[in-house]
Amino acid sequence: MVKGISIMTNKSEALQKKKPVKKKSNAGRKTVMTKEVLRKLDECFLNDLSDRQACYIVDINPESLYAYQREHPKYTERKATLKEMVKAKAKMVIAKTINSNDINTAKWYAEHKMQSEFSTKQEIAGSGGFASAVTVEFI
Question: Model pTM?
Fold first, then answer.
């Protein structure tokens, strides 16, 4: 040993000097993110509610949700997928209605999704190719 510096000569001596790893304490506040809370949140997100709305309904602080998402990144993906399901269901209902030969739904769909071919409105271009304030609607 030279002026307070010790040199370890073998591996067993180095292993003996390591500090023991402390286990994470189970003490403290329990999580509010139980299976039941997650199930309720999933139901809210399945109905396209915002994070704040879902947290209000489930009676948790939004920060609890965000902390859970930081610890479980896959849940963030799941939440986004659940929120998209309302749009998917709406598309399926529209398609089913059109497939049952509902003419009004078919016309509405064509006017909104295929505007260049079926729109009932036309905009007249003004000078410089910009749309003018005039909109003509065909009835």
Answer: 0.58
